[in-house]
Design a protein that fits this description.
alpha/beta; Rossmann fold; seven-stranded parallel β-sheet; 7 strands; globular
């Protein structure tokens, strides 16, 4: 068994690598920071670990990655690379936002499509797209990040239904957690105003649900409740609450 994980140098990607290694999955781990990948490889001694340092904000690297590993008989694809950026939309960096779109949307889209076709041909495989509870909301002061997560969440759910209708045995799941203790805040230049979930716990729950074939994975009861209540909240109220939450992050 073999799994490919992007964004594996830290946070949930790194923890998923650790968990899958305990399940005897050989790993292909991908991220920009080679030294972090090397450290993780040294830690995971019981399985074969291949490191591929790549910046997936360059779409050409996404195709390069696929061509490099497409014949490795991969069973699991975990799209985890991504980042956010706090701030008012008129004040945040356009260059950073365009790079975010490249990583959070285009890289996911390319890799999902390429590996999905391979998985469908052999009628086996798992794809976990690390999305966010933000994928069901609009996020003032974190607007581009929320928009990217909306894209990939809705794409994942649509593909899941297509697979369901064709009775495919391929599984694709959207992991939609709330705040998780990772390097997200440091990169995004803000901080969460609510308690963050433990990264390893979220990763373990996500993989357990993925292998059960769960379409939508939302860890923690409080986040499930948030998802449920948001479906019935008036749009203006939902936006006002989101604005207040994001404003607290930047204080």
């Amino acid at each position: 068994m073999k799994a490919l994980i992007t964004g594996a140098s830290s946070g949930m990607g790194r923890d998923m690598a650790r968990i899958l290694a305990k399940m005897n999955y050989d790993l292909i781990i991908v991220a920009r920071r080679q030294e972090r990948l090397e450290e993780l490889k040294k830690e995971l001694k019981n399985v074969q670990v291949e490191i591929i340092p790549l910046d997936l904000s360059d779409s050409a690297n996404c195709f390069k990655l696929y061509e490099q590993v497409k014949n490795r008989d991969i069973d699991v694809l975990i799209n985890n690379a991504g980042f956010g950026l706090f701030g008012l939309f008129n004040e945040t960096s356009l260059d950073t936002e365009l790079k975010m779109i490249d990583v959070n949307i285009k890289a996911y889209h390319i890799l999902t499509k390429l590996f999905l076709n391979d998985f469908i041909k052999k009628d086996h495989g798992y794809i976990l797209n690390v999305c966010s509870l933000a994928g069901f909301m609009a996020g003032p002061r974190l607007s581009t990040y929320y928009a990217t997560k909306n894209y990939i969440t809705k794409l994942t759910l649509a593909i899941n239904e297509e697979l369901h209708k064709t009775k495919s045995h391929v599984v694709i799941s959207a992991l939609c957690p709330g705040p998780v203790s990772t390097e997200f805040n440091e990169v995004a230049h803000g901080h969460f105003s609510v308690k963050e979930a433990n990264s390893y716990s979220v990763a373990a729950y996500a993989l357990k649900q993925l292998f059960k074939g769960k379409m939508l994975i939302i860890p923690k009861f409080s986040m499930k409740l948030t998802y449920f209540l948001n479906r019935f909240a008036p749009l203006r109220l939902s936006l006002a609450i989101a604005y207040l939450i994001q404003e607290r992050k930047t204080r």
